[in-house]
Amino acid sequence: MTSQLNGSVLKAFKILDLFAACQSELTAKETADALGINMITAHRFLHTLVHAGALRVTSRGVFRLGYMFADLGDRVLHDGNLPTILQPILDQLARETGEACMATEFDRDAAVCIAKALPDRALYVDIRIGSRLDAFCTAHGKLWLAHLSPDDQDRYLKNARLTGMTDHTITDLDALKVELATIRDQGFSTNNGEREKDIYAIAVPILTKHGNMISAFSVFGASPATLAQNREALLAKLQAAAKSAQHVLYGDA
Fold it and tell me: What is the pTM of this model?
């Protein structure tokens, strides 16, 4: 059967994908070298993308992403489809762990629950869709803070009131900064009764291909000892679920 894929379109998206977080500008030579094409072909692709609004020329021979992506990105983040995409993966995660699970987005100064899945047993901890989770003392909140840009993180910390919710809440600013750096390095966050006594959670990020956090999964419950003892197994299941979500969102490319 004839392939339904258009090679030129795929090549154009490979060019756009070269604009990683650390690569804000691109030349024709860099494009040609990265994609293994000649300079004439690279110029043709780049100027076609400029004509389409996907790229803009900032100086002679230097290209940046076009402003159309700011609008497209805003549409994606606000189309309300992310919870629907993540729900089946979240349901499977709850079945595998036997614990309550949820997914979040970040809104200004709090993580917001956008989807949840509950275990098939009589007693469990529940949460409402739309619930706002304090950023400085919850697994999801600290995970989002850890993945903010340095400027956005500093802006949050400058205005944050680190109120002691329980005996385990981090109320010292320097200690919280150390915690956030650790979370970023290790790739997961925990909540050991920091927001509510005897509520424990583990959360992992769902990342774009360039490492930007778009959502997060967590397992949470009212049995700190049980969840702590099974942390490695739960973490492995969470990371597998996050990887599945990334595959659904971004494919293998």
Answer: 0.72
